[in-house]
Amino acid sequence: MANICVCARWRPSNLKEGGEALCIARSDSQSFTLEDEKDEKYMFSFDKVFYEDSEQADVYEFLARPIVRDAVKAINGTIIVYGQTGAGKTYTMEGANIRETDSCKKGLLPRVVDELFEAINLHGEASTYKIKLSMVEIYMERVRDLLDLSKDNILIKEHKGHGILLCGVTEILISDGEEALKFLYNGIANRAVGETQMNMASSRSHCIYIFTIQKELTNEKRVGTGKLVLVDLAGSEKVEKTGAEGRVLEEAKTINKSLSALGNVINALTSGQQGRANHIPFRDSKLTRILQDSLGGSSQTALLCCCSPCRCNFSESLSTLRFGARAKHIKASSRTDMKEEMHDKKQETSSSANDMKLKIVDLRERILKKLREKLDAETLKLIREEFALDGFSCEEVNLSHEEVAVISSQGAEAETHESMENHHSPFQCGIEISSYTIFFIA
Ligand SMILES: Nc1ncnc2c1ncn2[C@@H]1O[C@H](COP(=O)(O)OP(=O)(O)OP(=O)(O)O)[C@@H](O)[C@H]1O
Predict the structure, then answer these.
(1) I need a labelling partner for 107 at 20 to 30 A (CA). Which of 9, 10, 74, 343 fits?
(2) Ligand 1 mean position to 326 CA, how many Å?
(3) Which of 11, 98, 323 has the most ligand 1 atoms within 8 A of CB, as the residue to mutate?
(4) What is the pTM of this model?
Protein backbone atom coordinates (compact mmCIF):
# COMPACT_ATOMS: atom_id res chain seq x y z
CA MET A 1 0.00 0.00 0.00
CA ALA A 2 1.22 3.49 -0.80
CA ASN A 3 1.67 6.02 1.96
CA ILE A 4 -1.83 7.12 1.42
CA CYS A 5 -4.62 4.76 0.48
CA VAL A 6 -7.24 6.62 -1.54
CA CYS A 7 -10.66 5.13 -2.22
CA ALA A 8 -13.91 6.42 -3.67
CA ARG A 9 -17.39 5.61 -2.40
CA TRP A 10 -20.65 6.15 -4.27
CA ARG A 11 -23.72 6.32 -2.14
CA PRO A 12 -27.04 5.06 -3.55
CA SER A 13 -29.43 7.60 -5.07
CA ASN A 14 -31.91 8.89 -2.55
CA LEU A 15 -35.67 9.27 -3.03
CA LYS A 16 -35.32 12.87 -4.22
CA GLU A 17 -32.82 11.85 -6.88
CA GLY A 18 -34.66 8.66 -7.84
CA GLY A 19 -35.57 9.61 -11.41
CA GLU A 20 -32.37 11.50 -12.21
CA ALA A 21 -29.63 10.35 -14.55
CA LEU A 22 -26.47 8.96 -13.03
CA CYS A 23 -23.00 10.28 -13.72
CA ILE A 24 -21.03 7.13 -13.01
CA ALA A 25 -20.25 4.12 -15.18
CA ARG A 26 -18.48 1.21 -13.47
CA SER A 27 -15.33 -0.29 -14.92
CA ASP A 28 -14.00 -2.52 -12.16
CA SER A 29 -13.26 -2.50 -8.45
CA GLN A 30 -10.64 0.22 -8.91
CA SER A 31 -11.79 2.28 -11.86
CA PHE A 32 -14.86 4.01 -13.20
CA THR A 33 -15.86 6.70 -15.63
CA LEU A 34 -17.59 9.90 -14.67
CA GLU A 35 -19.85 11.35 -17.35
CA ASP A 36 -21.26 14.85 -17.59
CA GLU A 37 -24.43 16.00 -19.34
CA LYS A 38 -22.58 16.37 -22.64
CA ASP A 39 -21.29 12.81 -22.32
CA GLU A 40 -17.78 14.03 -21.69
CA LYS A 41 -15.95 11.25 -19.87
CA TYR A 42 -13.43 11.36 -17.04
CA MET A 43 -11.74 8.16 -15.98
CA PHE A 44 -10.56 7.67 -12.42
CA SER A 45 -8.64 4.91 -10.70
CA PHE A 46 -8.19 4.51 -6.96
CA ASP A 47 -6.96 1.85 -4.58
CA LYS A 48 -10.55 0.69 -4.36
CA VAL A 49 -13.95 1.88 -5.46
CA PHE A 50 -17.00 1.17 -3.34
CA TYR A 51 -20.10 1.37 -5.50
CA GLU A 52 -23.69 2.02 -4.44
CA ASP A 53 -24.20 -1.57 -3.35
CA SER A 54 -21.08 -1.72 -1.19
CA GLU A 55 -21.42 -2.73 2.42
CA GLN A 56 -20.21 -0.73 5.41
CA ALA A 57 -18.17 -3.78 6.38
CA ASP A 58 -16.36 -3.75 2.99
CA VAL A 59 -15.25 -0.19 3.54
CA TYR A 60 -14.04 -0.97 7.04
CA GLU A 61 -12.17 -4.10 5.98
CA PHE A 62 -10.26 -2.47 3.17
CA LEU A 63 -9.71 1.06 4.33
CA ALA A 64 -9.69 0.99 8.10
CA ARG A 65 -8.85 -2.43 9.49
CA PRO A 66 -5.14 -2.43 8.53
CA ILE A 67 -4.74 1.02 10.05
CA VAL A 68 -6.56 0.05 13.26
CA ARG A 69 -4.43 -3.08 13.62
CA ASP A 70 -1.29 -1.02 13.16
CA ALA A 71 -2.42 1.52 15.73
CA VAL A 72 -2.46 -1.27 18.31
CA LYS A 73 1.18 -1.89 17.36
CA ALA A 74 1.97 1.79 18.04
CA ILE A 75 1.86 2.85 14.40
CA ASN A 76 -0.07 6.08 13.97
CA GLY A 77 -2.97 6.09 11.54
CA THR A 78 -5.40 8.57 10.02
CA ILE A 79 -8.66 7.99 8.16
CA ILE A 80 -10.28 10.95 6.39
CA VAL A 81 -13.70 11.11 4.71
CA TYR A 82 -14.06 13.88 2.12
CA GLY A 83 -16.91 14.97 -0.12
CA GLN A 84 -19.79 17.35 -0.68
CA THR A 85 -22.62 17.67 1.82
CA GLY A 86 -24.89 14.67 1.70
CA ALA A 87 -22.37 12.46 -0.12
CA GLY A 88 -22.22 9.91 2.68
CA LYS A 89 -19.26 10.96 4.85
CA THR A 90 -21.07 10.76 8.15
CA TYR A 91 -22.93 7.61 7.13
CA THR A 92 -19.57 6.03 6.41
CA MET A 93 -17.96 7.31 9.60
CA GLU A 94 -20.74 6.81 12.15
CA GLY A 95 -23.22 4.56 10.38
CA ALA A 96 -26.95 5.24 10.32
CA ASN A 97 -26.24 6.43 13.86
CA ILE A 98 -23.38 5.81 16.23
CA ARG A 99 -25.38 3.33 18.33
CA GLU A 100 -26.63 1.41 15.29
CA THR A 101 -26.90 -2.25 16.15
CA ASP A 102 -27.69 -3.53 12.65
CA SER A 103 -24.30 -4.82 11.57
CA CYS A 104 -24.97 -3.86 7.91
CA LYS A 105 -25.39 -0.23 8.86
CA LYS A 106 -22.62 0.15 11.42
CA GLY A 107 -20.09 2.75 10.38
CA LEU A 108 -16.33 2.91 10.74
CA LEU A 109 -16.28 4.30 14.29
CA PRO A 110 -18.15 1.52 16.09
CA ARG A 111 -16.16 -1.04 14.10
CA VAL A 112 -12.90 0.67 15.06
CA VAL A 113 -13.95 0.53 18.71
CA ASP A 114 -14.86 -3.18 18.41
CA GLU A 115 -11.57 -4.01 16.77
CA LEU A 116 -9.46 -2.02 19.21
CA PHE A 117 -10.91 -3.80 22.24
CA GLU A 118 -10.84 -7.15 20.47
CA ALA A 119 -7.17 -6.67 19.63
CA ILE A 120 -6.08 -5.61 23.10
CA ASN A 121 -8.01 -8.44 24.73
CA LEU A 122 -6.03 -10.94 22.66
CA HIS A 123 -2.72 -9.83 24.03
CA GLY A 124 -2.72 -11.70 27.33
CA GLU A 125 -0.66 -10.74 30.35
CA ALA A 126 2.57 -9.79 28.63
CA SER A 127 1.18 -6.38 27.85
CA THR A 128 -1.54 -4.10 29.13
CA TYR A 129 -3.31 -1.38 27.21
CA LYS A 130 -4.96 1.93 27.87
CA ILE A 131 -7.24 3.47 25.26
CA LYS A 132 -8.07 7.15 25.47
CA LEU A 133 -10.57 9.07 23.39
CA SER A 134 -10.60 12.75 22.47
CA MET A 135 -13.01 14.47 20.12
CA VAL A 136 -12.67 17.93 18.66
CA GLU A 137 -14.36 19.87 15.94
CA ILE A 138 -13.00 22.71 13.89
CA TYR A 139 -15.75 25.25 13.50
CA MET A 140 -14.98 28.67 12.01
CA GLU A 141 -11.26 27.99 12.55
CA ARG A 142 -11.68 27.38 16.27
CA VAL A 143 -10.91 24.01 17.73
CA ARG A 144 -13.60 22.99 20.22
CA ASP A 145 -13.44 20.10 22.60
CA LEU A 146 -16.54 18.01 21.92
CA LEU A 147 -16.19 16.20 25.23
CA ASP A 148 -16.05 19.47 27.19
CA LEU A 149 -17.64 22.41 25.41
CA SER A 150 -16.13 24.89 27.91
CA LYS A 151 -12.84 24.30 26.08
CA ASP A 152 -13.81 26.18 22.95
CA ASN A 153 -10.46 27.35 21.69
CA ILE A 154 -7.94 24.54 21.96
CA LEU A 155 -4.42 25.52 20.99
CA ILE A 156 -2.35 23.37 18.68
CA LYS A 157 1.32 22.98 19.50
CA GLU A 158 4.12 20.98 17.99
CA HIS A 159 6.32 18.92 20.30
CA LYS A 160 9.65 17.75 18.95
CA GLY A 161 9.28 14.18 20.10
CA HIS A 162 5.53 13.77 20.10
CA GLY A 163 4.48 15.76 17.05
CA ILE A 164 1.25 17.72 17.01
CA LEU A 165 -0.47 18.21 20.38
CA LEU A 166 -3.87 19.66 21.28
CA CYS A 167 -3.25 21.58 24.49
CA GLY A 168 -5.56 20.66 27.36
CA VAL A 169 -7.91 18.56 25.27
CA THR A 170 -10.12 16.13 27.22
CA GLU A 171 -8.85 12.58 27.07
CA ILE A 172 -11.30 9.99 28.34
CA LEU A 173 -9.87 6.68 29.43
CA ILE A 174 -12.27 4.14 27.97
CA SER A 175 -12.48 0.65 29.33
CA ASP A 176 -14.81 -1.06 26.88
CA GLY A 177 -16.70 -0.60 23.64
CA GLU A 178 -19.95 0.40 25.28
CA GLU A 179 -18.30 3.20 27.19
CA ALA A 180 -16.54 4.39 24.05
CA LEU A 181 -19.87 4.54 22.17
CA LYS A 182 -21.44 6.49 25.02
CA PHE A 183 -18.77 9.19 24.81
CA LEU A 184 -18.82 9.20 21.02
CA TYR A 185 -22.59 9.67 21.16
CA ASN A 186 -22.25 12.62 23.56
CA GLY A 187 -19.50 14.21 21.49
CA ILE A 188 -21.43 13.83 18.25
CA ALA A 189 -24.47 15.45 19.86
CA ASN A 190 -22.29 18.47 20.61
CA ARG A 191 -21.29 19.03 16.98
CA ALA A 192 -22.24 22.32 15.42
CA VAL A 193 -25.04 21.59 13.03
CA GLY A 194 -26.32 24.10 10.51
CA GLU A 195 -28.91 24.01 7.82
CA THR A 196 -28.35 24.46 4.12
CA GLN A 197 -30.55 23.78 1.15
CA MET A 198 -28.41 20.79 0.30
CA ASN A 199 -28.78 18.82 3.48
CA MET A 200 -31.03 19.84 6.31
CA ALA A 201 -28.85 18.17 8.89
CA SER A 202 -25.57 19.25 7.42
CA SER A 203 -22.48 19.28 9.57
CA ARG A 204 -20.63 22.54 9.10
CA SER A 205 -17.57 21.58 11.04
CA HIS A 206 -14.70 19.16 10.61
CA CYS A 207 -14.99 16.49 13.27
CA ILE A 208 -11.85 14.77 14.50
CA TYR A 209 -11.88 11.61 16.62
CA ILE A 210 -8.60 10.71 18.29
CA PHE A 211 -7.94 7.33 19.87
CA THR A 212 -4.68 7.02 21.76
CA ILE A 213 -3.63 3.44 22.35
CA GLN A 214 -0.97 3.05 24.98
CA LYS A 215 0.69 -0.33 25.26
CA GLU A 216 2.65 -1.28 28.34
CA LEU A 217 4.95 -4.30 28.31
CA THR A 218 4.52 -5.58 31.86
CA ASN A 219 8.00 -7.03 32.41
CA GLU A 220 10.00 -4.53 30.49
CA LYS A 221 8.29 -1.48 31.99
CA ARG A 222 8.04 0.12 28.59
CA VAL A 223 5.21 1.82 26.80
CA GLY A 224 4.45 2.25 23.11
CA THR A 225 1.83 4.67 21.89
CA GLY A 226 -0.25 4.58 18.72
CA LYS A 227 -2.55 7.43 17.70
CA LEU A 228 -5.54 6.69 15.51
CA VAL A 229 -7.26 9.76 14.04
CA LEU A 230 -10.56 9.69 12.16
CA VAL A 231 -11.68 12.83 10.36
CA ASP A 232 -15.20 13.57 9.14
CA LEU A 233 -14.73 16.67 7.03
CA ALA A 234 -17.40 19.30 6.49
CA GLY A 235 -19.08 19.40 3.05
CA SER A 236 -16.88 20.46 0.16
CA GLU A 237 -19.54 21.94 -2.18
CA LYS A 238 -19.30 25.31 -3.86
CA VAL A 239 -20.56 28.17 -1.72
CA GLU A 240 -23.03 29.40 -4.40
CA LYS A 241 -24.79 26.07 -4.55
CA THR A 242 -25.75 26.14 -0.88
CA GLY A 243 -27.74 29.35 -1.35
CA ALA A 244 -26.28 30.46 1.96
CA GLU A 245 -26.23 33.96 3.37
CA GLY A 246 -24.94 35.68 6.50
CA ARG A 247 -23.44 33.40 9.12
CA VAL A 248 -24.07 30.27 7.06
CA LEU A 249 -22.23 31.86 4.15
CA GLU A 250 -19.32 32.68 6.44
CA GLU A 251 -19.30 29.06 7.65
CA ALA A 252 -19.23 27.81 4.06
CA LYS A 253 -16.38 30.15 3.14
CA THR A 254 -14.35 29.08 6.17
CA ILE A 255 -14.92 25.41 5.39
CA ASN A 256 -13.86 25.90 1.79
CA LYS A 257 -10.79 27.82 2.86
CA SER A 258 -9.64 25.01 5.12
CA LEU A 259 -10.39 22.38 2.48
CA SER A 260 -8.40 24.46 -0.02
CA ALA A 261 -5.59 24.56 2.52
CA LEU A 262 -5.80 20.78 2.70
CA GLY A 263 -5.67 20.67 -1.11
CA ASN A 264 -2.70 23.03 -1.19
CA VAL A 265 -0.82 20.94 1.33
CA ILE A 266 -1.51 17.87 -0.75
CA ASN A 267 -0.42 19.67 -3.91
CA ALA A 268 2.79 20.82 -2.25
CA LEU A 269 3.46 17.28 -1.09
CA THR A 270 2.75 15.80 -4.48
CA SER A 271 4.67 18.35 -6.52
CA GLY A 272 7.98 17.20 -5.11
CA GLN A 273 8.53 20.19 -2.86
CA GLN A 274 8.27 18.22 0.32
CA GLY A 275 11.99 18.39 0.97
CA ARG A 276 11.65 21.41 3.18
CA ALA A 277 8.93 20.88 5.73
CA ASN A 278 8.53 24.62 6.22
CA HIS A 279 7.60 24.97 2.55
CA ILE A 280 4.47 22.90 3.02
CA PRO A 281 1.70 25.28 4.12
CA PHE A 282 0.50 23.20 7.09
CA ARG A 283 -0.04 26.35 9.13
CA ASP A 284 -2.60 27.79 6.71
CA SER A 285 -5.51 26.18 8.55
CA LYS A 286 -6.25 24.46 11.83
CA LEU A 287 -7.23 21.37 9.86
CA THR A 288 -3.91 21.02 8.06
CA ARG A 289 -2.03 21.85 11.25
CA ILE A 290 -3.76 19.05 13.15
CA LEU A 291 -3.23 16.66 10.24
CA GLN A 292 0.40 17.68 9.76
CA ASP A 293 1.74 14.45 11.24
CA SER A 294 -0.35 12.22 9.03
CA LEU A 295 -0.10 14.08 5.75
CA GLY A 296 3.57 14.83 6.37
CA GLY A 297 4.06 11.14 6.56
CA SER A 298 4.20 10.18 10.19
CA SER A 299 1.27 7.81 9.95
CA GLN A 300 -0.64 5.50 7.67
CA THR A 301 -3.28 7.59 5.97
CA ALA A 302 -6.47 6.61 4.17
CA LEU A 303 -8.71 9.03 2.31
CA LEU A 304 -12.24 8.14 1.27
CA CYS A 305 -13.80 10.35 -1.39
CA CYS A 306 -17.56 10.20 -0.97
CA CYS A 307 -19.73 11.02 -3.98
CA SER A 308 -23.34 11.32 -4.98
CA PRO A 309 -24.11 9.33 -8.18
CA CYS A 310 -26.62 11.91 -9.38
CA ARG A 311 -25.78 13.93 -12.49
CA CYS A 312 -26.94 17.12 -10.79
CA ASN A 313 -23.97 16.71 -8.46
CA PHE A 314 -21.53 16.01 -11.29
CA SER A 315 -19.27 19.03 -10.73
CA GLU A 316 -18.97 18.36 -6.98
CA SER A 317 -18.21 14.70 -7.62
CA LEU A 318 -15.60 15.67 -10.20
CA SER A 319 -13.92 18.06 -7.79
CA THR A 320 -14.02 15.47 -4.97
CA LEU A 321 -12.46 12.84 -7.20
CA ARG A 322 -9.79 15.23 -8.45
CA PHE A 323 -8.93 15.96 -4.87
CA GLY A 324 -8.52 12.24 -4.24
CA ALA A 325 -6.49 11.77 -7.41
CA ARG A 326 -4.05 14.48 -6.31
CA ALA A 327 -3.74 12.91 -2.89
CA LYS A 328 -2.83 9.60 -4.47
CA HIS A 329 0.41 11.13 -5.64
CA ILE A 330 1.65 11.91 -2.15
CA LYS A 331 5.17 10.60 -2.18
CA ALA A 332 7.27 8.90 0.41
CA SER A 333 6.97 10.55 3.74
CA SER A 334 9.53 12.85 5.20
CA ARG A 335 8.80 11.38 8.61
CA THR A 336 7.60 8.06 9.81
CA ASP A 337 6.47 6.98 13.22
CA MET A 338 6.46 3.33 12.27
CA LYS A 339 8.16 2.50 15.45
CA GLU A 340 7.30 1.83 18.97
CA GLU A 341 8.04 4.88 20.95
CA MET A 342 9.71 3.30 23.92
CA HIS A 343 10.05 5.02 27.25
CA ASP A 344 11.58 3.69 30.39
CA LYS A 345 8.90 4.75 32.85
CA LYS A 346 11.20 4.78 35.87
CA GLN A 347 13.75 7.01 34.30
CA GLU A 348 11.40 9.24 32.43
CA THR A 349 12.39 12.38 34.34
CA SER A 350 16.13 11.94 34.06
CA SER A 351 16.38 10.32 30.71
CA SER A 352 17.85 12.89 28.39
CA ALA A 353 20.50 10.35 27.30
CA ASN A 354 17.76 7.85 26.60
CA ASP A 355 15.76 10.46 24.77
CA MET A 356 18.76 11.13 22.58
CA LYS A 357 19.09 7.40 21.91
CA LEU A 358 15.43 7.12 20.99
CA LYS A 359 15.75 10.11 18.78
CA ILE A 360 18.70 8.58 16.95
CA VAL A 361 17.00 5.21 16.58
CA ASP A 362 13.93 6.96 15.28
CA LEU A 363 16.00 9.04 12.92
CA ARG A 364 17.80 5.95 11.71
CA GLU A 365 14.51 4.19 11.01
CA ARG A 366 13.20 7.13 9.08
CA ILE A 367 16.31 7.44 6.99
CA LEU A 368 16.55 3.72 6.29
CA LYS A 369 12.96 3.79 5.17
CA LYS A 370 13.78 6.48 2.68
CA LEU A 371 16.73 4.54 1.41
CA ARG A 372 14.52 1.60 0.61
CA GLU A 373 12.67 3.84 -1.73
CA LYS A 374 14.06 5.14 -4.96
CA LEU A 375 17.16 7.07 -4.13
CA ASP A 376 16.89 10.17 -6.25
CA ALA A 377 18.00 13.73 -5.76
CA GLU A 378 14.75 14.61 -4.02
CA THR A 379 15.19 11.78 -1.53
CA LEU A 380 18.71 12.83 -0.73
CA LYS A 381 17.45 16.31 -0.13
CA LEU A 382 14.86 14.84 2.23
CA ILE A 383 17.54 12.99 4.15
CA ARG A 384 19.39 16.22 4.76
CA GLU A 385 16.13 17.81 5.82
CA GLU A 386 15.57 15.05 8.35
CA PHE A 387 18.79 15.94 10.08
CA ALA A 388 17.91 19.60 10.10
CA LEU A 389 14.39 18.93 11.40
CA ASP A 390 15.76 16.99 14.32
CA GLY A 391 18.12 19.79 15.18
CA PHE A 392 21.28 18.02 14.03
CA SER A 393 23.81 19.82 11.97
CA CYS A 394 24.01 18.35 8.52
CA GLU A 395 26.88 20.43 7.26
CA GLU A 396 29.21 17.45 7.37
CA VAL A 397 26.77 15.43 5.31
CA ASN A 398 27.78 15.60 1.73
CA LEU A 399 25.60 13.32 -0.29
CA SER A 400 25.67 13.11 -4.03
CA HIS A 401 23.37 11.20 -6.36
CA GLU A 402 25.45 8.05 -6.33
CA GLU A 403 25.95 7.77 -2.62
CA VAL A 404 24.05 5.53 -0.28
CA ALA A 405 23.77 6.38 3.37
CA VAL A 406 23.81 3.75 6.05
CA ILE A 407 22.80 4.78 9.51
CA SER A 408 24.23 2.80 12.33
CA SER A 409 23.76 2.88 16.08
CA GLN A 410 25.99 1.02 18.52
CA GLY A 411 23.49 -1.83 18.68
CA ALA A 412 23.10 -2.21 14.96
CA GLU A 413 26.64 -1.41 13.93
CA ALA A 414 27.96 -4.97 13.55
CA GLU A 415 25.03 -5.96 11.44
CA THR A 416 25.41 -2.92 9.27
CA HIS A 417 29.15 -3.49 8.81
CA GLU A 418 28.50 -7.04 7.77
CA SER A 419 25.79 -6.24 5.33
CA MET A 420 27.92 -3.52 3.84
CA GLU A 421 30.86 -5.87 3.47
CA ASN A 422 28.62 -8.38 1.78
CA HIS A 423 27.92 -5.73 -0.77
CA HIS A 424 31.64 -5.00 -1.12
CA SER A 425 31.02 -1.39 -0.30
CA PRO A 426 33.86 0.37 1.47
CA PHE A 427 33.07 3.11 3.95
CA GLN A 428 33.51 6.46 2.41
CA CYS A 429 33.02 8.65 5.43
CA GLY A 430 31.22 8.76 8.70
CA ILE A 431 29.90 11.38 11.03
CA GLU A 432 29.32 11.03 14.74
CA ILE A 433 26.25 12.21 16.56
CA SER A 434 26.37 11.55 20.29
CA SER A 435 27.61 7.95 20.59
CA TYR A 436 26.18 6.99 17.23
CA THR A 437 27.90 6.99 13.90
CA ILE A 438 26.31 7.63 10.59
CA PHE A 439 28.28 6.10 7.74
CA PHE A 440 28.12 7.12 4.16
CA ILE A 441 29.35 4.73 1.53
CA ALA A 442 29.99 5.17 -2.15
N1 LIG B 1 -23.83 4.17 1.46
C2 LIG B 1 -25.02 4.63 1.87
N3 LIG B 1 -26.06 3.78 1.96
C4 LIG B 1 -27.28 4.21 2.37
N5 LIG B 1 -27.55 5.49 2.71
C6 LIG B 1 -26.56 6.38 2.62
C7 LIG B 1 -25.25 5.98 2.20
N8 LIG B 1 -24.47 7.09 2.21
C9 LIG B 1 -25.25 8.09 2.63
N10 LIG B 1 -26.49 7.67 2.87
C11 LIG B 1 -27.61 8.53 3.31
O12 LIG B 1 -27.52 9.76 2.61
C13 LIG B 1 -27.80 10.86 3.46
C14 LIG B 1 -26.63 11.83 3.48
O15 LIG B 1 -25.47 11.17 3.99
P16 LIG B 1 -24.51 11.82 5.10
O17 LIG B 1 -25.27 12.53 6.14
O18 LIG B 1 -23.62 10.75 5.53
O19 LIG B 1 -23.77 12.89 4.21
P20 LIG B 1 -22.50 13.76 4.61
O21 LIG B 1 -21.58 13.67 3.47
O22 LIG B 1 -22.00 13.36 5.92
O23 LIG B 1 -23.10 15.23 4.71
P24 LIG B 1 -22.59 16.42 5.67
O25 LIG B 1 -21.46 17.07 4.97
O26 LIG B 1 -23.76 17.28 5.76
O27 LIG B 1 -22.20 15.86 6.97
C28 LIG B 1 -28.11 10.28 4.82
O29 LIG B 1 -29.49 10.16 4.96
C30 LIG B 1 -27.49 8.91 4.78
O31 LIG B 1 -28.15 8.00 5.62
Answers:
(1) 74
(2) 24
(3) 11
(4) 0.73
